[in-house]
Amino acid sequence: DQQVKQNSPSLSVQEGRISILNCDYTNSMFDYFLWYKKYPAEGPTFLISISSIKDKNEDGRFTVFLNKSAKHLSLHIVPSQPGDSAVYFCAATGNSGYSTLTFGKGTMLLVSP
Amino acid sequence: ETGVTQSPTHLIKTRGQQVTLRCSSQSGHNTVSWYQQALGQGPQFIFQYYREEENGRGNFPPRFSGLQFPNYSSELNVNALELDDSALYLCASSLGIDRGGGGTIYFGEGSWLTVV
Hints:
The complex is a heterodimer. Chain A is 0% helix and 56% strand. In chain A, strands 2, 4, 5, 9, 10 and 11 form a 6-stranded mixed beta sheet that branches. In chain A, strands 1-3-8-7-6 form a 5-stranded antiparallel beta sheet, with no helix packed on it. Chain A has no helices and 11 strands.
């Protein structure tokens, strides 16, 4: 049973436009949400996170929005650049006492020039 | 670069064999977690070691075992390999039980295991 779901396997966007990646979760105990970016042959790298007590967090071109009532979060990338082409994983963590991440299946973003 | 190194990067094993994967955590980090990423899936938590003790385990059978050494490096051992064990195995290091809200969980590049 998937607790973190990314329902779009892939997304194509033109350079300069907005990329919106979506993520849903089912576990109410999650209280921190993170986005990781992964290039081929590399490990996931941290992009941005949000605490459950917030509804928005912004870092440069990246903004994450959290809607707790809908158990939904989204990552906005504006403007999108070809170097943003990668697989994006949504992950969540709860107060389990140890730092484990529950990941979605990922969304492959392709930004074309 | 994250400072987390894994070896080997690629290996092929035969069903029924045993494999050991290794991870050196980032300097100063005392917690290592292992994840399995099958093709088309997100990483799945296998287990975590904190100060040489197993500190949590995901839904993996006992043939998946691990160790953490005094220098906080770690090994993942898988016995009686099955075809479904073919995956990318990721090591992540962190300090204590930091849940990574500030991006403080660092992943290595992974070890690709193919079981034939």
